[in-house]
């Protein structure tokens, strides 16, 4: 019962407190943990066999303790305080007055490459010169915000903040811990930006990790599981079967490339209405399925340690994907399209084994904008994602949205791995 109900409680306890062990054997961690359980189980079995006539009182004691333990768990579930994240700086109605009817409204492509850090970070932490992709983007007419930082270092908070042009009331790690997973996922299901554009004639499309504006998530992920399920052995059984979370990553590997193809296909379609597209590519984020040339790597490599070297290989591959994507998209859409290519956060795991988080890297991002006619007077080098669509709506819909202070919240534990 203990193993079944609390498998991932023990998993996380060891994982967070002994990263120097768990990262060395990341790929075989479940095997090690199950081996320990089996070893302890066999040991207990032989002890019980030897003492079977002397365990009556111990059995009664353990039964009472077990009932109390389950009672405490049930009480925690009923009485625990949860944190509900909400947006604190949503635009006011008067600021969203639409006065762009006489203008040709552009198509808008919001393209996220998950965990794509800035070129300055790549130079500082990896010694890698990323000027090739920057030169390519500038030749295509992009403005690159080289000092940009994400507003949050977690995907759900970062994306929802950008697409609602607002900060959240999540201010520290404790708020993050107390937010039920399902509430975190719901943040990404609605966009103030998409809703506004839809009300003014836009077609909304999404190729994303999340259910978005009543559009089923493109990756086929299931976010409906309650938090308690994720603590039990059932999760491991699911991970190791065809229903698996790890199998989900294999699906992601192919979906990532399909998102690129979907963007190209969308750009080629002629419409009588403008389109808003949110696309989310789960690269260069781990697992590290690819080397720099796009060759698929074995499981031991892909699911192994969070190596900066492997991340850099995947960044190089993403640069090739960006070139392919834009080369095939822009001949069809560049005359009247806004394109944002953005990371939602940085790499986040730059330190030594005993300290895995480096805030200065975890919040820096790639952030590039393409506007028709290259009119970038409203952009600036340190613009953060929360202001991206405030600038775009002000420019093309003539709204009166004030820009917010560019702030980064780094929701990380001081020790151990990300909560």
What does the model show?
Helix content is 44%, strand content 7%. By secondary structure, it is an alpha/beta fold. Helix 12 (245-268) packs parallel to helix 14. A six-stranded mixed sheet has the order 2-6-5-1-4-3. It has two domains: 2-79, no CATH class; 93-396, Alkaline Phosphatase, subunit A (3-Layer(aba) Sandwich), CATH 3.40.720.10. The two termini are 26 Å apart.
In short:
The protein has 419 residues and is α/β, with parallel strands linked by helices.
Question: What's the SSE blueprint?
Answer:
Elements: H1 2-17, H2 19-22, H3 29-50, H4 56-79, E1 107-113, H5 119-126, H6 131-139, E2 143-144, H7 155-164, H8 173-177, H9 181-186, H10 192-199, E3 203-207, H11 233-239, H12 245-268, E4 275-281, H13 299-302, H14 308-333, E5 337-342, H15 359-362, E6 367-370, H16 388-396
Parallel strand pairs: 1-4, 1-5, 3-4
Antiparallel strand pairs: 2-6, 5-6
Helix pairs in contact: 12-14
So what's the CATH class of the largest domain? Alpha Beta
Strand content: 5-15%
Low-confidence stretches: 415-419
Helix count from the secondary structure assignment: 16
Q: H/E element string?
A: HHHHEHHEHHHHEHHEHHEHEH
Strand order of the largest sheet: 2-6-5-1-4-3
Q: Major sheet: size, sense and barrel closure?
A: 6 strands, mixed
Termini, distance in Å? 26 Å
Percent in helix:
40-55%
Which architecture name of the largest domain does CATH use? 3-Layer(aba) Sandwich
Q: How many distinct folded domains?
A: 2
CATH topology annotation of the largest domain: Alkaline Phosphatase, subunit A
Average pLDDT, rounded to a whole number, is 85
Overall spatial form? elongated
The number of distinct β-strands equals: 6
């Amino acid at each position: 019962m203990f193993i079944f109900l609390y498998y991932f409680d023990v998993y996380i306890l060891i994982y967070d407190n002994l990263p120097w062990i768990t990262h060395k054997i990341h790929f075989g961690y479940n095997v090690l943990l199950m081996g320990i359980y089996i070893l302890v189980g066999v040991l207990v079995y032989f002890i019980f066999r030897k003492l079977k006539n002397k365990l009556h009182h111990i059995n009664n004691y353990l039964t009472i303790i077990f009932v109390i333990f389950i009672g405490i768990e049930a009480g925690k579930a009923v009485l625990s305080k949860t944190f509900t994240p909400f947006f604190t700086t949503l635009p006011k109605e008067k600021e969203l007055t639409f006065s762009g009817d006489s203008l040709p409204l552009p198509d808008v492509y919001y393209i996220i490459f998950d965990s794509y850090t800035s070129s300055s970070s790549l130079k500082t932490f990896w010694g890698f010169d990323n000027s090739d992709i920057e030169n390519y983007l500038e030749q295509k007419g992009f403005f690159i915000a080289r000092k940009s930082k994400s507003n949050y270092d977690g995907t759900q908070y970062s994306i929802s903040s950008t697409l609602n042009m607002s900060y959240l009331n999540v201010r520290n790690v404790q708020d993050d811990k107390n937010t039920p997973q399902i509430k975190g996922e719901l943040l990404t299901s609605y966009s103030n930006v998409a809703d506004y554009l839809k009300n003014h004639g836009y077609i909304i499309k999404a190729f994303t990790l999340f259910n978005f504006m009543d559009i089923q998530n493109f990756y086929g992920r299931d976010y409906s599981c309650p938090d308690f399920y994720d603590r039990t052995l059932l999760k491991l059984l699911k991970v190791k079967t065809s229903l698996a979370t790890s199998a989900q990553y294999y699906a992601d590997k192919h979906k990532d490339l399909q998102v690129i193809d979907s963007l190209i296909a969308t750009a080629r379609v002629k419409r009588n209405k403008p389109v808003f597209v949110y696309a989310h590519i789960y690269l260069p984020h781990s697992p590290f399925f690819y080397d720099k040339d796009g060759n698929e790597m074995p499981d031991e490599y892909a699911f192994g340690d969070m190596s900066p070297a492997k991340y850099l290989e995947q960044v190089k591959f993403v640069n090739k994907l960006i070139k392919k994507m834009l080369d095939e998209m822009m001949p069809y859409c560049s005359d009247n399209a806004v394109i944002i290519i953005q990371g939602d956060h940085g790499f986040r795991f730059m330190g030594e084994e005993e300290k895995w988080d480096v805030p200065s890297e975890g919040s820096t991002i790639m952030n590039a904008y393409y506007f028709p006619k290259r009119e970038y007077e409203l952009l600036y080098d340190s613009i953060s994602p929360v202001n991206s669509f405030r600038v775009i709506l002000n420019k093309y819909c003539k709204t009166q949205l004030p820009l917010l202070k560019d702030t980064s919240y780094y929701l990380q534990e001081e020790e151990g791995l990300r909560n």
